[in-house]
Amino acid sequence: MARLLDSINSPADVKKIPVEELPQLAQEIRDELISVLAKTGGHLGPNLGVVELTIALHAVFDTPTDSFVFDVSHQAYVHKLLTGRRDRFNTIRQAGGLNGFMLRTESEHDSFGAGHAGTALCGDAAFTCGITYEALNNISTHAKRLIVILNDNEWSIDKNVGAIAKYLTDIVTNPRYENLHRSMEKLVQRFTGETGKQLALKAEGAVKGLLSTGHRPSLIFEEMGLSYYGPIDGHDLPNLIKTLDFAKHYSQPLLLHVLTKKSKGFDIGIAQQKKYHGVGPNTYDPEKGIETSTPAPKTYSQVFAETMVKLADMNSKVVAITGAMPNGTALDLFRPKHPDKYFDVGIAEEHAVLFASGMATKGYKPFCAIYSTFLQRAFDQIVHDVCLQNLNVVFAMDRGGLSGDDGPTHHGLFDISYLRCIPNLVHLDASNEDELADMLFTALHHDGPIAIRYPRGNGPGVALKPKPALIPIGKAEVVKHGTQAVALGLGALLPMALEVAKELEAKGFSTAVINPRSVKPLDGDTISFFARGAEVVITMEDHVLPGGFGSAVLEDLANRGLQTPVVRIGYPDAFIEHGKPDALRKKYGISVEATVEKALPYLQKAKSTGKTAAQVVA
User: Fold this and answer.
1) Could you report the per-residue pLDDT of 235-245, keeping only the tens digit for each?
2) pLDDT by residue (tens digit) across 238-297?
3) Spatial CA neighbour of 358 closest among 346, 347, 368
4) Is residue 526 within 8 Å of residue 478, measured between CB atoms?
5) Which of 33, 92, 269, 293 could form a disulfide with 98 if both were Cys (CB 3.0 to 4.6 A apart)?
6) CA 103, 105, 107, 111 torsion: positive or negative?
7) C-beta atoms surrounding 26 within 10 Å
8) Tell me: domain 477-617, CATH 3.20.20.370, correct?
9) How far apart are alpha carbons 386 and 390 in whole angstroms?
């Protein structure tokens, strides 16, 4: 029997399928998601939860004339399947394939690209995000026709927290509002046209009046100019379609509160929501519905969390703060050990940093664990509230560098540039697991703001000492001595720098290797000591070149009057696409071969002339 899904080449084809057959389409889409993502990896749980909702949207509205804007947009896989990308869906998050988020350059049906929360068609977790309320504040004044769909599944990656999560739960569980929901559903089904709309409005308004009496305040959404409808079952396709059709013809902004179940149709995903929010390739067997992944070495995130437990054991003032990412940052390992020192503020990075600064003024030592890419959202708070006041806040920047298949919205390739310019801030970059633990321990004893950068995934496998040690801030580590070239391998690229040195040595050029450790303050004394006698300085960083570590080295050498050529290895002034880190590094010249090729001309020219490179340049 042919699949309904195979007949869909555009949203117009969704409208051709009878409503009673749409549940079959929903099941086929779930099967496709489970089958394909078992191989490619991706955001499984969120997309399994929005299958019926996305089908209903395309059954009622007409993209691209009607614009769908998905919050975060990792929940847009179903949308991609229904908008002419079904035949390429097996390439999702693969090099050269479909992006894991909405991408304007990929399809006319992707009206807005979004990889961070708080942008649009909202999950309930996004209502902890300040920018969501800034947008809502403008609706009554500037929007005439707008439908906000609140996809309420009680999760972001972890369980939602805070007053907003409780507020939504109160709505869902209030028996009087449930009566409203049933009344609203019956009226929409019974009446058509303007009469049906007006009667529904009157009935809903009467019940809302009951909820607003006594100690219950009026609904926050209506105070912001949005008519509220719901909650409704996000997996009941016939009712979803009728309600969305009602909303389509409504003349004012409205919010539709839809209840969905994350990972619906996949039992192990429902049982382990955090793990199956996003999965790697070959994590599970789609046929048997069982896990297939094997235990992996500790990640940098796990090392961070385990070290945090040790620090909190040592010092009662240590606290850990996350913005709805306890799983991604591994602070869910810290939480059970020190529940009174753990704070999840929701998807609110600006508040997380401001909250940390407030705690610092009261003598606490806050460690703010935020991905490099998400910390961009809190730039003003870093400058104005933390660094201007020179407060003792530690920024633990996970995902410093490439974030692989997640692509440009999640790569952490800009933090050196946007933090290096801020006075009072120390910026460190760990080259291995044990060094990360030492840097965290050093941060505990440092007075003033400090940022520690570390990559996604596993490190080189360096064992941790029983107790971390202090690292002198602003002092590089000389890993290998040499005279003709000096390779500075920042953070995760230190092993590559060692390989570069090995290749250059094999060609007859003595090469020093330095682990910079500190981007700011830069150890200019050590770097210039080697640069003075070398033919070339090589800087290597998992970061963009503009404003990065190599730029800092150039600035320092120029200030010292040194003209030794500098070969900078890093990413260009561009947004880097999704793909496997090794493949992306090779493509952009961040490899041993490309580095040696760029450095050799300086070494060979100096050798042929008998002069140093600095003399050649002069």
Assistant:
1) 999 999 999 99
2) 999 999 999 999 888 888 999 999 989 998 888 888 788 888 888 888 887 777 766 678
3) 368
4) yes
5) 92
6) positive
7) 23
8) no
9) 6
Residue written as token pair 């760990």: 430
CATH for the 5-271 domain, from 3.65.10.10, 3.40.50.1860, 3.40.1000.70, 3.40.50.970:
3.40.50.970
E strand residue ranges, 12-138:
none
For 16, 100, 276, 295, the CA distances from 272, given in Å and listed in that order, are: 36, 21, 6, 16
52-104 residue pLDDT tens: 999 999 999 999 999 998 877 888 999 999 999 999 999 999 989 999 989 89
Contact 98, 92 (CB under 8 A): yes
Ordered by start, the domain boundaries in the chain are 5-271, 300-453, 477-617
Spell out the residues 6+ positions from residue 335 whose beta carbon is closer than 8 angstroms to its own.
Answer: 326, 342
Which one, of 55, 254, 32, 41, lies nearest residue 146 by Cα? 254
Whole-angstrom Cα distance, residue 600 to residue 542?
A: 22
Cα–Cα distance, 52 to 27 (Å, whole number): 9
Query: What are 485's two structure tokens?
Result: 């070239």
576 with 586: CB under 8 angstroms?
Answer: no
Sheet containing strand 394-397, edge to edge, reads 342-344, 318-322, 365-369, 394-397, 450-453, 426-429, 518-520
* Among 160, 152, 149, residue whose Cα is nearest residue 69: 149
CATH classification number, 300-453, choose in 3.30.360.10, 3.40.50.2300, 3.40.630.30, 3.40.50.970: 3.40.50.970
| Non-local CB neighbours of 305 within 8 Å, separated by 6+ positions | 329, 330, 331, 332, 333, 334
- % of the chain exceeding 70 in pLDDT: 85
| Residue 472, burial from CB neighbour count under 10 angstroms (0-12, 13-18, 19+) | exposed
CB 41 within 8 A of CB 97: no
Is the backbone of residue 33 left (phi > 0), alpha (psi -120 to 50) or beta?
alpha
**Weakly modelled stretches of the chain, pLDDT under 70:** 114-130, 140, 155-219, 293-295, 610-618
Label residue 461 exposed, middle or buried (CB < 10 Å: 0-12, 13-18, 19+): exposed
The strand pairing partners of 299, in sequence order, are 458
Please answer whether residues 256 and 229 qualify as being in contact, where contact means their C-beta atoms are separated by less than 8 angstroms: yes
> Count of CB atoms within 10 A of residue 38's CB?
19
Q: Which residues pair with 489 in a beta bridge?
A: 540
Asked if 260 contacts 230 with a C-beta cutoff of 8 angstroms, the reply is no
Could you please report the per-residue DSSP string of 246-273? HHHT-SS-EEEEEE--TTTT-HHHHHTT
CA angle 91, 413, 398 (to 5 degrees): 90
Show which residues are catalytic.
Answer: 262, 349, 377
What is residue 484's three-state secondary structure? coil
pTM, two decimal places: 0.77
